[in-house]
Amino acid sequence: MPNSSSVSEFLLLAFADTRELQLLHFGLFLGIYLAALLGNGLILTAVACDHRLHTPMYFFLLNLAILDLGCISTTLPKAMANTLWDTRAISYEGCAAQVLFVFFLAGAEYSLLTVMAYDRYVAICKPLHYGSLLGSRACAQMAAAAWGSGFVHAVLHTANTFSLPLCQGNAVDQFFCEIPQILKLSCSNSYLREAGVLVVSVSLVFGCFVFIVLSYVQVFRAVLRMPSEQGRHKAFSMCLPHMVVVSLFVSTVMFAYLKRPSISFPSLDLMAAVLYSVVPPAVNPLIYSMRNQELKDALWKLMTRCVSDAANFQSASADDS
């Protein structure tokens, strides 16, 4: 039987068998990828360039945009390249790198979402202590802790997963290298060690989710006691997008990682992977900007400036000629 030392490459899941459908999937994912690059890139530029957005909430949103860009860039370009060139192969080292970066970026993103829930709790429930609890140093430390925790978990899971002997071939039933799918290739009971570590990690994820829910229970109680309807509207506008992002992320990740490896529903597995690795990076900019007037104003100001600069450049070029 082959083991991990004899596996030089893995075969990823193909989205379609016919060339026409393959090209259709390529075009669809290319559109999603470009939308994610554009949306997150605009948020990064707006937050960096507009001094009014230099606050803890937007600092964490900037970090979230960076993580989203990294997450979707780890999985989608390889899947698109395989679809375009009609291949399924990914090298052993490339697969390990995908697992490392997906776990790192997704873990850091979830930790950051937890920190963002704390930020909203302090802003609404303890506004007088906001400056002391969420100063620039505290924000930097919390962001660093989110990135660091994601990296530690990623190294642990990647090393643990790829130390397992692989006895069930090299076909991964997913469009990127995902730990539950790799565990299905391991020998009979050898996957139990990594499965146990995954359960512990998912338990921590659930614990963070409980913290987020309890934080928002306190937030909503405080919001409902606000006398001003405008104040309530603004508070809900800041909190509801975050709750939508967290709910989508947690539900799909728990579905993907809590199932036994022997239980396989290919279409559901594929949908869950797309929902937690592809959809959030593309829709998060829209979710966070749709109900956020400050961010919309900053984005409008940025686009207006870009159009004005382009017009001035074109006019100067015409004068020179």
Gist of the model:
The chain has 321 residues and is mainly alpha-helical.
Could you characterize the architecture of this molecule?
The chain has 321 residues and is an all-alpha fold. The chain has one domain: Rhopdopsin 7-helix transmembrane proteins (Up-down Bundle), CATH 1.20.1070. It is 76% helix and 2% strand. The protein contains eleven helices and two strands; from the N terminus they run E-H-H-E-H-H-H-H-H-H-H-H-H. The chain has a two-stranded antiparallel ribbon with strand order 1-2. It starts with 8 loop residues before the first strand and ends with a helix. The N terminus is likely disordered.
CATH architecture: Up-down Bundle
- Spans where pLDDT lies below 50 across 5 or more residues: 1-5
Total domain count: 1
Approximate shape: globular
Terminal-residue CA separation: 72 Å
| CATH C-level class | Mainly Alpha
How much helical structure, as a percent, in the residues? over 70%
